[in-house]
Amino acid sequence: MPKVDITVEVCGMAGDGTIAAGGLVNEAMSLGGFSVLGFDSYPAEIRGFGRCVTRSRIGSNEIGALADETHILISLDDLQSRSRVPFLARDSAVLFDSKPDTLLEEEQSLAAVVEPGTALFGIPFTYLATAATGTSRGRNLAALGGFAALFGVQPEWFRRVITRKFQSKGEKVLEVNLKSFDAGFHYALEKFADRLRPSFAAANVVAGPEKVMLSGNQAIGQAALDAGLKLYFGYPITPATPIMEFLAKYLPAKGGRVVQMEDEIASVGAVLGAFYAGARAMTATSGPGFALMTELITHGVMAEIPAVILNAQRGGPSTGLPTKTEQSDLHAAVFGGPGDSSRIVIAPSNVAECYSFTVQSFQLAEKYQTPVIVLTDFYLDNRVENVVMPVASEKEKTDGNLYPDESLQGSYHRYLDTESGVSPRSLPGMEGFAYVATGLEHTERAQPDYTPEIHTKMTGKRHRKLQYALEDLPVPVEYSDGGQLDVGIIGWGSTFGSIQEAVNMARERGWKVAALKITSIFPYHEKEIRSFMTKCREILITELNYEGQLANLIGHLHRKEVVRLNQVTGVPFSPSAIFSKIEALLQAGVS
Amino acid sequence: MKTAATSLAEQIRHIKEAKKFDIRSGALPTWCPGCGYFGIHQGLNACIQELGLAHHEVVTVSGIGCAGRYPFFTSNYGLHTVHGRTLPVAQGVKLANPDLTVYAVGGDGDGLAIGGGHFPHAARRNVNINYLMFDNSIYGLTKGQPSPSSPVGMKSKASPFGTLDKPLNATLMALTYGASFVARLFAGDPKGITEALIEGTQHEGFAFFHIYSTCLTFDKAYKTWAHLKQWVHPIPEDHDPADLRRAFDLVLGDDFSTGIIYRRE
Description:
Number of helices of chain A: 20
Domain Pyruvate:ferredoxin oxidoreductase core (chain A): 486-559
CATH architecture of chain B: 3-Layer(aba) Sandwich
Mean pLDDT of chain B: 95
Mean pLDDT of chain A: 95
CATH topology of chain B: Rossmann fold
Low-confidence stretches of chain A: none
Domain Pyruvate flavodoxin/ferredoxin oxidoreductase pyrimidine binding (chain A): 223-458
Structural class of chain B: alpha/beta
CATH topology of the largest domain in chain A: Pyruvate-ferredoxin Oxidoreductase, domain 3
Shape of chain B: globular
Number of helices of chain B: 9
Strand content of chain B: 15-25%
Radius of gyration of chain A: 26 Å
Structural class of chain A: alpha/beta
Largest interface: A-B, 43 and 36 residues
Largest sheet of chain A: 8 strands, mixed
Distance between the termini of chain B: 19 Å
CATH class of the largest domain in chain A: Alpha Beta
CATH superfamily of the largest domain in chain A: Pyruvate-ferredoxin oxidoreductase, PFOR, domain III
Order of helices and strands of chain B: HHEEHEHHEEEHEHEHEHE
Low-confidence stretches of chain B: none
Number of strands of chain A: 21
Helix content of chain A: 25-40%
Pfam families (chain A): PFOR_II, POR, POR_N
Domain Pyruvate/ketoisovalerate oxidoreductase catalytic (chain A): 14-185
Oligomer: heterodimer
Shape of chain A: globular
Number of strands of chain B: 10
GO biological process, one term (chain A): response to oxidative stress
């Protein structure tokens, strides 16, 4: 069975239905049993100008990242699509509107700028849709019909996802879309009968258990719902806003509430208040909002109040690059704020982990009575993957709180200095256990106290908890065949998918290369990381920031200087960039 | 609720019953002797006794400043937060467990300066919490800098040539922000505080208590006991707190009338 690994792009102007078309490609291919990873990019400006591009990587095997090159480009607007030509692979195919509304000068058409050898398929999207339905609105669907016919996609997959998407919008809308699709399909099937490239059909992929297309943000929202979230407090910020919007829609039906606050400080303040009173609450933000939250996060650390805070990283500093991806808030997440205030920071690397880590974060926060920060990034939040709908187990959802024993009524030490540093925590409403949670340094009985003995003891207690938390935190994941290695790559977050792809490329050449995924950023699993490092001649730490923030944190665990690969282009790592670095390291080692 | 104590025996029983709800903790308040905040403490204590609210069902949320220390002097649950964030945290507590009675307390610096951005939103959101602003027009804990409610021309170490900024009027702000219960009170009148707190605590929605106080350590010239006692007076008998226009008229025409200024059911 031939392996399929094809990247499809849809490109158009805002208003062309580009994002909708890309979404349908993802859904249809997922329905057909392929692995799908999709990512849309569109202008930061809300006004209807600018280029929209959707990229979908479709494979018969598991997919970790977007690919560098595009194999099929569906152009809904030639002027916009010209910018995508440099990304086309050799032998790629381009579908374009051969009879658009406004004719372009010959040298402006896409056909004029593609490399020789590119297969061009001119299909009159606008004309076909209009002829079939009386309106040109379905021209993006006509384009999808052409795509399905040319590349061996069963039209039934598309018809089903089109029906699912449009049936709620009325009979008429659904009909326009289905008929436009069919018009494009039949036209291409006949017109290009001798040039068909049925790559997808040839893969003979068998659809497994039903999968859903989920973005990182949707997975996070669903996880919060499943974990029994009661209150969400938030403030609009790209790229975290979709989480608030998702919960605003679904949380009320579960008896919860979404409150849009006046700023991020208020959001995290209300989260702390809610957890203090015993309810599961969360907030999600991005770098600038996270910076505002830091004082209250350290309050959670000091007063030992649980909190769940999601930081969907974007490019920084300051307002930075609001719609671009970066991993440059690691230092802020782990150490940001006054004093010795490190806290739990976990970082999912794919959509499935977005779900499971978010579910886990509530229990961790309760159990260790400290803020838990879930660190994602723009690329992870906004990309879609097809996954089997994740489900949280009862155990994962269980209340993580440790309540005081009834016998202690009246002689309660809220901040009892136990072996693990975790002290039983009462909730308002429990009789005989009233105390004042305070951000001042305090005694075990929660009385303010600034003596050297108390600050030394209580700082130790708060940090000891984190070491105990390690046993519950997601462990590093080794992507390796075992044995001694020339290069070991360490990465975190969405970057890890690109690392995996690069490792695959290296292994195909017989090189001894492996990777380690760090999922708990702080505290981190020192023993496991060291044991991986010991097996490697060189350690390469790859991340989307300038300062090498993970390398700064764990690089000292290696016996020699770690090699860093950093990128601040605002876009994800291409696997081949990492591959080139591996190659360079190996060559340096040989000479 | 208030009970009419007719006989001596009933009065004694009433006092004993109320003692159970005495919120004064063993901790000695850090406030200076003679501070107006003792009067507020007394006023709130009497309110809680009167309403018979159990210690464990009351949460006092505070920020930073002399007023911020208040939770330590009570035997309720308390949440002593960071500077200026009293209101969002208090709303989180109340939304998480509506059975709790929540008092947010803070000073004029905490609520009008650093935390000023939360005040309008707490008012318009109308979550059922009670907000007591201890307004002594000065930063006492940092030793006497001018606050947002200090008079123009106030001299201090931080303003040796006098301040230029006009003072904020917290009562007027609360009315403007749409607070559904607004009372202006005086720390020298604990009984008045108790009466307003009893009403405000039972009010369904955001209740604001603007309480004039004094800082006798750092303010020797403006809001002194002597001046406040001279200035403060009850609102007119015929004032109708249901009438927002009249509430505005009252507050715009008179900075020192005290009582329940506005309430909307």
